[in-house]
């Protein structure tokens, strides 16, 4: 019927980026299952998929009480040894029966929640994109815990170079005419509504995680630039506040790196409007220009001092 | 220039799952306590005499199902060396084999129960514990982690704690535990998975039996590999249990140890244990890729397997 | 960094001082939040002049987060946008975020420390530490399950820095009580050690803050008779001796807040406007808050005693 998910993204709580081997240890969430790592074009490590059982109200724009039971698939990942994501999703399907089945029925369908009763995909999707009810399916809380498990690893020193809020990206994918809508809500909340041709594939999850990653990078860079108060504070102070961006963020921008070819048109269309990469590039230029101006001023001061 | 279709693969980023050789059915020819062995060969023969007709029935019913009657049926026998150690393999195993042979039964594989806890450095019990996905009571929406009583697993919601939640607030009153997905009334089951004494964990009998079932169904993997393979018997059996392989193949012509389905022929005194085993197994998440692999294999042979793994397990209590 | 604000007794000005410290810390350019863990009386919203949560929130507050069956994300109040005070409603340039986490309206004290609540408390501290430069936790007065819970929580977060501020008034009774709360039987040090803190390291992370202090040479005392002033002076000397005897003396003190009439009448944030434009507050008071807001993160002020 449809697939819904939520990705949380944040800064790894460590002073520097961590090497691939540490990523493996941190993400070893399930014994007997290997952490998968890809190294090109950026080191990306992902934990095995884990399941969480749910039996609760499903989101509904019309406030219908639709019960769903089944499992949610979640994983934690680390990109570039620096950015953490907790990601959960589940496919909503109609149940063959109105009764809750024995649990083994649901475990035979990992990552599927069955709607008991009459559920309309549009109503579910609209409901999920809105503020969910407190007792409804809470994918966000699950994803947040999959971030926590990484952030609280004893292998991390917890001395992150700057403080930054996690962002949350909630997404719904339905079959139909290809389309994507990205909406920025509050400081931390984003929604993506995606329509794909043909069957749902896990590549859609990768795409949403990639969007969440880059949206977070953009958000973090904006926050750092705002804190630097360029023009409002003395040059050296502003430069010092911009430094963490150079040290920890600027090299991480690699849109569409892990996105399936079939889905890359979605990224491309978002890059045309609103133009994530355009905004990123202009911010990066701003940071680099500031640092260049500061360096020049510093050199001028130094040489001026030496001439006296 | 024309566009070039580039592909790039990284071994560490891909997931590979070994497949297990599979019979159609794995028949367990009984499970005995140490006192049964102590009682001597006659007690064993008595047990095997009761088992033999059931084993024969299952064998022939599978032969009828498979075109050409070429059903792959293997038999196995599990010896408890975990909770108590009795005698030596050199003494006990031949006694068991002789008693079975007297009843026209062939034991293809013999296994040690302690191997279900750990074998060759692989902690199978841990592996299974990590794959438990708790059966959620109604109104479990993911906002909090699953309620887990350390070392216990149940099929519903336990009684709420009696007492006050905050100062000057209302007190909780007792309420009965509830089975999830109950039919009318609850049959609430709460199973102890393990206990710990002085830092040493002892797995419970039902938990190890659940691991045993998963091994027989060929559904466990560690790093994508099969966690243990049967070892062909040598001429003599060793003098201590640790030297006996986890699963030993006794019959060179035997069908594979693991199977699409299992049958256990047991004394009725094992009924509560097997209820606990079902409670555990219905909450074990088997790897999705492994499940697909087994379904594809059986489908290729024209066999429709039950979707839920607890339905692939059957019992005769006699 | 986590800062726990506790007081020996009620009515010390703990909440009003700790809110003013976070406010000043935000003005100094840091992202800060304030957790109302005064569960028996969750009224921090009133001090921040956020009328909708003046007596706690009717939405999902900290009580719900720690105690309810479903643990919803706790309600956040962005003080810069939601305060009823005109002067607070625009974030000054260069200021950081200022977020209040209110308790539940009608919520009560914790009845005990249960494992589940403790786990959620650890989770909350850990997440907020990711996001905020400073997390101020108002722990309420005296020995409480809340204090016990946060002592246990910090044992489980060994890499998250934390500090305690113990607020007390400058009287004989308060000095003795503050000493008892920290050093006495079943005090912070005793209980903290019991749960796994190192006693000496924990002591190094505790400082005292004197509130509503009337200095004998203060301007307010100009109209006093000589006899009165002499008596006050003698009293102050005696209290100093008492304080240092009870390890509540100057070395363990992080700062003091002068008595300010405005705070006796209304617990509120003291903005620069209150000092400079309307002149209802004393400049010394604002300066004392500003100073404390710097000192709480200044390692030099927290070197071993």
Automatic annotation (TrEMBL), chain A:
Biased composition (Polar residues): 79-89
Biased composition (Basic and acidic residues): 90-100
Region spans: Disordered: 79-100
Protein name: Uncharacterized protein
The organism's taxonomic lineage, starting at the top: Bacteria, Bacillati, Actinomycetota, Actinomycetes, Streptosporangiales
From TrEMBL, chain B:
InterPro entries: SCO2522-like (IPR049747)
Cited NCBIfam families: SCO2522_fam
UniProt-recorded name of the protein: Uncharacterized protein
Organism: Planotetraspora phitsanulokensis
Upper lineage: Bacteria, Bacillati, Actinomycetota, Actinomycetes, Streptosporangiales
Automatic annotation (TrEMBL), chain C:
GO annotations of cellular component type: cytoplasmic side of plasma membrane; cytosol
GO MF, one annotated term: ATP binding
Keywords: ATP-binding, DNA-binding, Nucleotide-binding
This protein's record includes keyword Lipid metabolism: no
Top-level lineage group: Bacteria
GO BP annotations listed: negative regulation of cell division
Name of the molecule in the record: DNA-binding protein
Source organism per UniProt: Planotetraspora phitsanulokensis
């Amino acid at each position: 019927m449809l697939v819904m998910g939520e990705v949380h993204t944040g800064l790894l709580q460590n002073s520097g980026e961590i090497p691939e081997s540490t990523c493996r240890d941190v993400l070893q969430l399930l014994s007997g299952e290997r952490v998968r790592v890809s190294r090109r074009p950026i080191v990306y490590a992902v934990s095995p998929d884990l399941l969480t059982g749910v039996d609760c109200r499903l989101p509904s724009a019309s406030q219908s009480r639709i019960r769903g039971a089944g499992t949610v698939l979640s994983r934690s990942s680390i990109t570039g040894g620096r950015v953490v994501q907790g990601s959960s999703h589940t496919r909503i399907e109609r149940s063959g029966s109105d009764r809750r089945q024995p649990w083994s029925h649901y475990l035979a369908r990992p990552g599927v929640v069955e709607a008991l009763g009459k559920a309309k995909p549009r109503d579910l999707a609209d409901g999920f994109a809105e503020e969910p009810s407190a007792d409804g399916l809470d994918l966000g809380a699950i994803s947040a815990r999959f971030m926590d498990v990484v952030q609280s690893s004893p292998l991390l020193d917890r001395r992150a170079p700057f403080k930054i809020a996690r962002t949350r990206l909630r997404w719904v994918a339905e079959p139909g005419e290809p389309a994507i809508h990205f909406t920025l809500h509050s400081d931390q909340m984003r929604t993506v509504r995606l329509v794909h041709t043909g069957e749902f594939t896990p590549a859609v999850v990768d795409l949403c995680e990639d969007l969440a990653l880059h949206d977070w990078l953009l958000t973090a860079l904006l926050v750092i630039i705002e804190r630097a108060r360029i023009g409002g504070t003395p040059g050296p102070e502003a430069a010092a506040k911009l430094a963490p961006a150079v040290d920890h963020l600027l090299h991480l921008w690699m849109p569409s790196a892990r996105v399936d070819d079939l889905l890359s048109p979605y990224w491309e269309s978002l890059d045309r409007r609103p133009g994530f990469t355009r905004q990123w590039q202009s911010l990066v230029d701003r940071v680099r220009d500031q640092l260049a101006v500061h360096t020049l001023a510093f050199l001028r001061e130094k040489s001026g001092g030496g001439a006296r | 220039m024309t566009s070039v279709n580039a592909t790039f693969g990284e071994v560490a980023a891909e997931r590979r799952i070994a497949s297990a050789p599979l019979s159609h059915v794995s028949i367990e020819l009984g499970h005995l306590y140490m006192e049964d062995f102590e009682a001597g060969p006659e007690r064993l023969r008595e047990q095997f005499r009761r088992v033999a007709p059931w084993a024969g029935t299952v064998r022939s019913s599978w032969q009828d199902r498979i075109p050409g009657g070429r059903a792959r049926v293997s038999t196995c026998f599990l010896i408890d060396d975990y909770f108590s150690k009795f005698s030596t393999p050199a003494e006990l195993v031949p006694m068991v084999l002789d008693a079975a042979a007297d009843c026209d039964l062939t034991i293809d594989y013999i296994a040690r129960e302690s191997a279900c806890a750990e074998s060759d450095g692989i902690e199978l019990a841990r592996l299974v514990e990590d794959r438990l996905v708790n059966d959620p009571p109604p109104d479990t929406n993911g906002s909090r982690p699953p309620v887990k009583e350390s070392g216990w697993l149940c099929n519903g919601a336990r009684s709420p704690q009696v007492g006050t939640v905050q100062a000057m607030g209302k007190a909780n009153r007792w309420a009965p535990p509830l089975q999830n997905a109950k039919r009318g009334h609850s049959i609430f089951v709460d199973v102890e998975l393990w206990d710990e004494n002085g830092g040493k964990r002892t797995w419970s009998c039902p938990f190890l039996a659940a691991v045993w079932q998963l091994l027989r169904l060929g559904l466990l993997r560690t790093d994508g590999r099969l966690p243990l393979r049967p070892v062909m018997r040598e001429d003599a059996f060793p003098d201590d249990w640790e030297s006996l392989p986890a699963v030993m193949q006794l019959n060179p012509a035997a069908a594979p140890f693991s199977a699409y389905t299992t049958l256990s022929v047991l004394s009725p005194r094992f009924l509560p244990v097997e209820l606990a085993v079902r409670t555990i197994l219905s909450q074990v998440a088997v790897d999705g890729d492994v499940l697909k692999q087994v379904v594809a294999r059986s489908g290729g042979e024209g066999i429709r397997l039950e979707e839920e793994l607890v339905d692939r397990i059957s019992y005769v209590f006699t | 960094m986590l800062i726990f604000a506790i007081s020996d007794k009620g009515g010390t000005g703990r909440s009003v001082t700790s809110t003013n410290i976070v406010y000043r810390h935000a003005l100094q350019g840091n992202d800060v939040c304030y957790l109302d863990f005064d569960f028996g009386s969750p009224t921090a919203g009133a001090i921040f002049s956020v009328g909708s949560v003046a007596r706690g929130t009717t939405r999902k507050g900290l009580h719900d987060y720690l105690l309810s069956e479903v643990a919803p994300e706790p309600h956040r109040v962005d003080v810069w946008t939601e305060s009823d005070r005109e002067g607070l409603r625009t974030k000054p340039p260069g200021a950081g975020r200022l977020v209040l986490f209110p308790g539940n309206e009608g919520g009560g004290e914790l009845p005990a420390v249960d494992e589940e609540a403790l786990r959620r408390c650890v989770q909350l501290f850990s997440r907020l530490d990711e996001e905020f430069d400073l997390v101020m936790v108002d722990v309420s007065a005296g020995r409480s399950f809340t204090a016990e819970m946060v002592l246990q929580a910090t044992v489980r977060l060994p890499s998250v820095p934390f500090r305690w501020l113990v607020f007390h008034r400058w009287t004989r009774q308060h000095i003795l009580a503050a000493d008892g709360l920290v050093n006495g039987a079943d005090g912070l040090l005793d209980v903290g050690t019991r749960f796994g803190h190192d006693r000496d390291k924990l002591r190094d992370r505790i400082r005292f803050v004197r509130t509503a202090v009337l200095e004998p040479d203060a301007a307010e005392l100009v109209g006093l008779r000589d006899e009165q002033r002499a008596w006050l002076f003698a009293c102050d000397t005696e209290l100093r001796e008492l304080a240092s005897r009870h390890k509540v003396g100057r070395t363990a003190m992080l700062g003091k807040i002068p008595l300010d009439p405005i705070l006796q009448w209304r617990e509120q944030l003291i903005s620069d406007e209150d000092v400079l434009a309307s002149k209802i507050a004393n400049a010394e008071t604002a300066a004392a808050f500003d100073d404390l807001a710097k000192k709480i993160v200044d390692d030099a002020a927290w070197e071993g005693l």
